[in-house]
Specification:
The chain is α/β, with parallel strands linked by helices. 55% of the residues lie in helices and 9% in strands.
Length: 391
């Protein structure tokens, strides 16, 4: 193959046109008729930026696939990477490698301090995103001299890339809360009832016991009551390093500036909730079937609730997903190499938590199990659960 290319080159044929003809079929003849011969220096420039673009996209894709549990974003980045590779091949990308000259490239001898270290995963992914945008803009500008129609297509792709990188950046803004989630295993769901213990005292007792997340869930409370409670509890939770979540109401979670919101399968769809929710805030989703667990891997959610596991005191269901569902959910997440935190929910107490842990699911969300007639009783019950979870 190399000797064939060399023979063509020695006879004076344009190597870039040769590559285009070898890579295209009849439907692509318009490209062959449009394209001008590509000068060597432009070929080197396009080659460098094509590589930079592919490497940047792959860096982002791999993080969202293996570390950031955003399968939907990883999939879109992969599709874009393959699309760009195909488009650039049509323009003759394979031939550009013949004009690489790393030994005489002054850019290989230049580096900045920021290139040599990154302070966080967010810095790594955001730097990759910036490289992609810059590389694509360079390709777009210089292909104007070769094929204006191709350049116009690159402009359209660049705008799509802006949307993907904005989504990536917004997700990374939630990184502190997501790191908190990774270390969390006890999630308490409470209402606004103050007949026995005040709301403030209950939250303080739960925080003292080591509860990681607290969700305000009260179908009987008015919007104003929920907002007022959230405003009052937010600073207390922040001081105690406890995440404060609202149930169902994305609008109220936005207004109250809490850490996140949790929605069910019958509430606002995830894609709409994510558009309303502040980008740095968390979004949780209830799942009741393996199909819903699998679907969550391709949605912009930060955690899932899996259940109901057992009959509970706060909600009644016609069917219970049960322990078998937890086993399947855990295996599904393991098979997908997903780091999406999953909390078992529904009727979980100190009496049955060991059965839950045997399924492989190591996080639980509870309601009645942390209820009590006094703050001391609430703290004691929560501590018992925390100890059973291994903390």
């Amino acid at each position: 193959m190399l000797s064939t290319i060399a023979n063509w080159a020695s006879r004076g044929d344009n190597l870039h046109t040769l590559t285009i003809r070898s890579q295209t079929n009849a439907p692509r003849q318009d490209l062959i008729s449009r394209v001008k011969p590509i000068p060597d220096d432009i070929a080197r420039l396009l080659d460098a930026n094509a590589n930079r673009l592919a490497e940047g996209l792959r860096t982002m894709e791999d993080w969202w696939r293996f570390g950031g549990h955003r399968g939907d974003l990883a999939k879109q980045l992969k599709l874009l990477r393959h699309e760009l590779d195909e488009r650039l091949r049509q323009l003759g990308r394979l031939s550009w490698t013949c004009h690489r000259n790393i030994d005489t490239d002054p850019g290989t001898q230049v580096s900045t301090p920021n290139e040599l270290s990154r302070d966080s995963i967010a810095d790594v992914v955001n730097a990759a995103a910036e490289r992609c945008k810059q590389a694509l803009r360079t390709i777009e500008e210089f292909t104007k001299t070769i094929d204006p129609k191709f350049s116009s297509q690159m402009e359209s792709v660049r705008y799509r890339l802006y949307t993907l990188t904005a989504d990536s950046t917004q997700t990374l803004m939630r990184s502190d809360r997501r790191r908190h989630l990774e270390d969390s295993n006890l999630y308490a769901l409470i209402d606004l009832d103050e007949k026995n213990v005040s709301l403030d005292d209950r939250v303080e007792a739960l925080a003292q016991a080591g509860v990681d997340l607290i969700q305000l869930r009260d179908k009987t409370a008015s919007d104003r009551q929920l907002i007022s409670a959230a405003d009052r509890l937010r600073p207390k939770c922040q001081e105690s390093n406890v995440l404060l979540i609202l149930n169902d109401r994305v609008d109220l979670a936005f207004a109250a500036d809490v850490d996140g919101v949790h929605v069910g399968q019958d509430e606002l769809p995830v894609e709409i909730a994510r558009r309303i929710q502040k980008p740095e805030r968390l979004l949780g989703l209830s799942t009741h079937t393996i199909g819903e667990v699998r679907a969550s891997l391709d949605q912009a959610v930060d955690l899932i609730g899996c259940g109901p596991t057992f009959p509970g005191h706060t909600k009644s269901f016609d069917e219970y997903a049960g322990l078998d569902f937890l086993v399947q959910a855990h295996q599904t997440l393991m098979d997908a190499e997903a780091s999406l935190p999953a909390f078992a929910i529904g009727g979980i107490t100190c009496d049955n938590i060991d059965k839950v842990l045997e399924t492989g699911v190591s996080r639980v969300a509870v309601t009645a199990a942390v209820d009590g007639q006094s703050a001391e009783a609430i703290e004691r019950k929560a501590k018992q659960l925390k100890q059973r979870l291994g903390d």
